[in-house]
Design goal:
Largest sheet: 6 strands, parallel
Distance between the termini: 29 Å
CATH class of the largest domain: Alpha Beta
CATH architecture of the largest domain: 3-Layer(aba) Sandwich
Strand order of the largest sheet: 5-2-1-6-7-8
Number of strands: 13
Shape: elongated
Strand content: 5-15%
Helix content: 25-40%
Number of domains: 2
Number of helices: 19
Length: about 400
């Protein structure tokens, strides 16, 4: 049971999703859709299931990450290497609105489960595909891990300091971004199907590197118009001043963003630099960019002489955007995170576990966690027996064949 007991309608109620593939990108898309009401049937290999079940922090034999990523999903076991297993997928596709898969391009076609195969069974089917480089182009067949695609998509180049190797965040950012794009693509395709006279589905082709590429702001027009290559800029933001991370006297870091002209003046007054607040050289962003080191030096001198609480209180009083750099323990104890309902508690074998809520927060049809990620094959009987109406004899035969 979750702490959110209200059972209000959700925007994707009545939508059935078949989730194929494993680990993060495709499953994160399924997690989002399930959170907002879709019935997500997750297909896993019968032997060990999704590898994420045993990744990172494991409690009582199951990853706590799995409990979050597989929330609200119905787990069934199907061996896609067998014809019997593939037959199950075809039968499920007939009853589904959406299929999500994140295998290497060509794999689903090899199994006779590609978009053309399944749309021949169900023309209304929306077929979402997540891969490293997309389904077309010269690199389509290359394996595409998030780490590689973050570099290929341009993010790793601008992330870090110029005198050091490119830095990765300690997250699978590319996979999560691709999952978000896949969920967005599915929703757009659902709207298109709803409005289309024939109500046909379509293929949603998501490349991890393209999801990363979507973050790259103006790097393309800046290069095309002026030959400017955006370089890594450490903790600053190229062409916008001041915005940086500053160390305080207690060793903690704060982020200050005061790049608006009036905000800059308020910042300088708050830190006791009235002369710099009125200096015409710093009146607009272009001038401040030319004198970035001088401005950052003044701010750093002030923060280094004060503890972080004093710094943040003074800037809040002056209405200057600022904030601490939180770790997860800070988030869990912060009143704003809790007031916004960003933690949802579930119980697993009597033990409580907090899961992160998923944004966005919808006023009338909010998402929710109905149950955490379940045991492998927990919904086999429901899906095979009730949804597909397979008899006990059929299920016994498929189990004997290793198909389920």
């Amino acid at each position: 049971m979750t702490t959110h007991t209200a059972r209000t309608a959700r925007p994707l109620d009545g939508i059935r999703v078949i989730e194929l593939g494993q680990l993060l990108a495709g499953p994160f898309a399924g997690c989002i859709l399930g959170y907002f009401g879709a019935e997500v049937i997750k297909v896993e290999p019968p032997d060990k299931g999704d590898p994420l079940r045993t990744w990172r922090v494991v409690r009582d034999g199951t990853s706590v990450w799995w409990r979050s990523l597989a929330r609200n999903k119905k787990s069934i076991t199907v061996n896609l290497q067998t014809e019997g297993g593939r037959g199950i997928i075809r039968r499920l596709a007939r009853e589904a609105d959406v299929v999500i898969e994140n295998f290497r391009p060509g794999t689903m076609e090899k199994w006779g489960l590609g978009p053309d195969d399944l749309k021949a069974i169900n023309p209304r089917l929306i077929y979402a595909r997540v891969s490293g480089y997309g389904q077309t182009g010269p690199y389509a067949s290359k394996p595409g891990f998030a780490s590689v695609c973050e570099g290929f998509g341009g993010f790793r180049y601008v992330n870090g300091f110029q005198d050091r190797p490119p830095v990765r965040p300690n997250l699978s950012m590319g996979d999560t971004l691709a999952g978000l794009h896949a969920a967005l693509g599915v929703l757009l395709a659902l709207v298109s199907r709803l409005r289309g006279p024939e109500q046909h589905g379509q293929v949603v082709d998501v490349a991890i590197y393209e999801a990363v590429f979507n973050l790259m702001e103006a790097v393309v027009p800046e290069y095309d118009a002026a030959g400017v290559v955006r370089e890594p800029s450490g903790s600053t933001l190229t062409g916008i001043v001041p915005t940086n991370t500053y160390k305080c006297a207690d060793g903690k870091y704060v982020v200050i963003g005061a790049n608006g002209d009036s905000i800059y003046k308020r910042l300088m007054l708050a830190i006791g630099r009235a002369q710099m607040a009125e200096d015409p050289r710093f009146a607009n962003n272009a001038g401040r960019v030319e004198h970035e080191q001088e401005i950052d030096g003044a701010i750093s001198a002030w923060t280094s002489a004060n503890d972080s609480a004093t710094v943040l209180a003074a800037l809040d009083e002056a209405s200057v955007p600022c904030g601490p750099i939180y770790n997860v323990a800070d988030m869990l104890s912060d009143p704003h995170f809790n007031a916004r309902g960003l933690f949802q508690q579930v119980e697993i074998d009597g033990k409580p576990l907090k899961l992160p809520a998923l944004a966005p927060l919808l006023e009338d049809t909010p998402g929710r966690t109905d149950w955490p990620g379940e045991a492998l094959g927990a919904h086999n009987d429901e899906v095979f027996g009730t949804l597909l109406a397979l008899s006990e004899d059929e299920r016994a035969r498929l189990r004997a064949e290793g198909a389920i």
